[in-house]
Amino acid sequence: xxxxxxxxxxxxxxxxxxxxxxxxxxxxxxxxxxxxxxxxxxxxxxxxxxxxxxxxxxxxxxxxxxxxxxxxxxxxxxxxxxxxxxxxxxxxxxxxxxxxxxxxxxxxxxxxxxxxxxxxxxxxxxxxxxxxxxxxxxxxxxxxxxxxxxxxxxxxxxxxxxxxxxxxxxxxxxxxxxxxxxxxxxxxxxxxxxxxxxxxxxxxxxxxxxxxxxxxxxxxxxxxxxxxxxxxxxxxxxxxxxxxxxxxxxxxxxxxxxxxxxxxxxxxxxxxxxxxxxxxxxxxxxxxxxxxxxxxxxxxxxxxxxxxxxxxxxxxxxxxxxxxxxxxxxxxxxxxxxxxxxxxxxxxxxxxxxxxxxxxxxxxxxxxxxxxxxxxxxxxxxxxxxxxxxxxxxxxxxxxxxxx
Length: 404
Description:
This protein has 404 residues and is mostly helical. The protein has two domains: 17-192, Up-down Bundle (Growth Hormone, Chain: A); 215-399, Up-down Bundle (Growth Hormone, Chain: A), CATH 1.20.1250. It is 79% helix and 0% strand. The chain is built from 19 helices and no strands. The chain has helices at 17-35, 37-48, 52-68, 70-80, 83-101, 106-123, 126-135, 139-150, 153-168, 170-192, 215-219, 222-251, 256-263, 266-280, 286-306, 310-339, 344-354, 356-373, 377-399.
């Protein structure tokens, strides 16, 4: 594969206004458009009598839509930058929060969340990462900052929104969040992203053909598919266990209160892991970090397979929480390190698109396996085997590094 060169001139520092502005929009955006969904799911179930499955389908629809449009969104950002698309996406999110506050039917909820997937795809996750990669001199550190602080969105938003719902009701709470979305992500994106460029470098001069996106060539390599396997297994395991870990612990004799306390360890452990990446990994390299964290991720899953008492579950929560949290950053930075930064948006979008099934079916798949075998023992051993495969796949992808 031909090496993909990194554009040489970038305008922003990794700790400057662009990074902190993007960080603020991601904290508010993820909080408004994703993390608070379970709180509203409970409210809608009580008001309308909908089941957990019926309401959960709406979130799945949003995830699928966001992944399906990831490649064209990435190509747009590579060519034109993130100013327009992130501002429009944030504004769409605000409007959809208003529409959600007026929902009366299940099908109306599904339509809103299909559109919410578009808003998320335009303004969250891969798109700001592409903006950072194309415009920040030390893109590794820039991505680490944005990813680290964005991961706190749920921790910040969930208790605040819970209080808001208690005070004004769920419909008015959504209206308040819509206002926050306008005053925060919409306005900040419109201001700070002005003048940023895409990952294809400077705009082509009139009459000069634009260099084609490298995503097609990248997707024809084994390296891309090795990395896709590694990322898919991380997504599948993390998202699946996040919904099943509570009943798993109870099945093994932990009380509900103890299980909840153990689950709360994951968040601080992820923060500790990311701080370690900041201070211990030279240049915040995703490849260096991934070579350590993917085996640690597998080790955490093995600890869960063997856990049977409180100390062993604590060990699992610390190891798994640290590695799972850091690997979210590794996925973003390793794409640029392995393939180069030209076409970063489209390549990241392609990874999301080919991982639709594991990203959206982890919870359901683990439930089916549990019901088939009658316990979580086989579930966790299967996950351990998958994490070993993911570790090998990442090492193979890193060994074929083509970027800077």
